Amino acid sequence: MEINEGDCNSQDKSLRNGQVEGEASVLSSNLFLNHVGEVTVTLYSDGLSWKLLDSLEDDGSTCLGLKFFPKIATEVKFSDIYAVELMDSGRIQEPNLTSAAECFLGNYAHDSGMNHFVVHSFQKSNSQPCLWILADYTFGHKDLQTCQMWVNRINDALNKEVGRPKNLLVFVHPMSGKGNGQRTWETVAPIFSRANVNTKVIVTERAGHAFDVMTSTSNEELNLYDGALAVGGDGFFNEILNGFLSSRHKAPFPPAPSDFLDALGNEGNSLFPDRNGAGSETPYNKDSDPLLPSLADKESGFSHFDKKFEYLLPNQRFRFGIIPAGSTDAIVICTTGARDPITSALHIVLGKRVCLDVAQVVSWKTTSTSKVEPRVRYAASFAGYGFYGDVITESEQYRWMGPKRYDYAGTKVFLRHRSYEAEVSYLEVESEKKSSIPDGTRMFSNVWSLKQKKYEGIICRANCNVCNRKPVCSSERDHSATPCMSSQETRWMKSKGCFLSVGAAIISNRNEKAPDGLVADAHLSDGFLHLLLIKDCPHALYLWHLMQLARKGGDPLNFDFVEHYKTPAFTFTSFGDESVWNLDGELFQAHKLSAQVFRGLVCLFATGPEV
Asked: Which of 59, 234, 297, 357 is catalytic?
């Protein structure tokens, strides 16, 4: 069909219903849409819409009385478009009808050369709303200037979209998961290229490489980037996060009860001049852990660190992103709802934002006989001891197995059924007291059974009201303060005994093996840890508990031997010789430990899951 120059104009040819008065002027043209046909395309202030000019009803697309109408999109919002580009002249195809319909319609493909441009967007999967699928809309016109005009107008609209990144620092873990980190990045790299996002890609060559880059990068240089991406798993993201925070996050040590501080002796008391850690900054020990800067480095002011440019936290502009390529990818599943590299890449280029709680974990002693030497690490998903620490320790010698090593190591550790004597203290917050199940007196019952009532909490999702709620008890000027820390509203509680595991879930930790996560109603940014204490119990009941974790809709917390508390801080003391913790999938030695959560300390390129 011939298209005259007069077909392109700035008049409103087919305004949408309900257009508000004062809306920006629109552009309207008759264009060919690939696999659809000739359409009238209209540009509005918030997106594009199109309407088929030639109805299929008039095209005789029937066979034996049945009509064939291809299901096609009719509009796309600018907030869902990540790129538009002018293409070389080529062929525009008519609708992809069924063969039965084609026998009546014939093939009306336009073979002549035609200029065209492509609008790159996405569609949500019908079966999985959290899964985003690439969607391209190819429009054609005989006139090159018409296509160029549309590209320019759409680009002008995209440039007005707030928060989209322009420069990103990308870390690729080539051996992550099944060793496909590099291939995963190559799959999504074209999305960043089309969106005109500049990427500085660093393929790591050793453990701690990404950590070293993040700590050695000055604040002024880091400010040139809109964020940092991890192409790998949860452990790799943890390395990047610790490199970022270790030299930039200044905070007091976690609060602790007086008997915990007394047990540290004079060495510990010197680090807590006011007995609650207020005003004490976090020292580090590089000799004990290569990922942690030394105390000497901290006192010398980090010679490689640019003090002229202060980096404030939380930082809404600088965000982290994760392209999943790990063994579990729990953080990605909890923040985007899908374990899919394409979905994650789209969240990033579209500039999505969600805040994430981060736990500061301090190991005061690595063994029962070691001296007090605080080492600080940060965790974004989970900190676990006992069963969780043993699994990660056991799996280290089977790295050659890939992700299957966790199944094998988990089976071996489960069969040992080893418990550990320890004491856990936690801050009880009055407003959250009802969510802690069960009441402490039932834990020592000789009758092992399921509890009668299941706690029903609010599930975290996109635009979560719980995460968006302003903190009541924390300082208005400090968003990263732990919530409800005033003495009138909190008190220290204790649990002592033999534990199969001690865990602190910062987020729900949904993954493919635990579809609801460790704690189904944990939130991304509410300022609380979910403390999970699994008391020693018969082997069969512990298996039952693990089976509940692995089942969608299961209730793993509804046992007498399971204690669950929401808390902003806790302390841990082992009565054994040594102990190993699992922090976001990484080993951490801690015989005596304290932890606190910082609400919304970092931001991610994500929206939260659509539940």
From this structure: 234
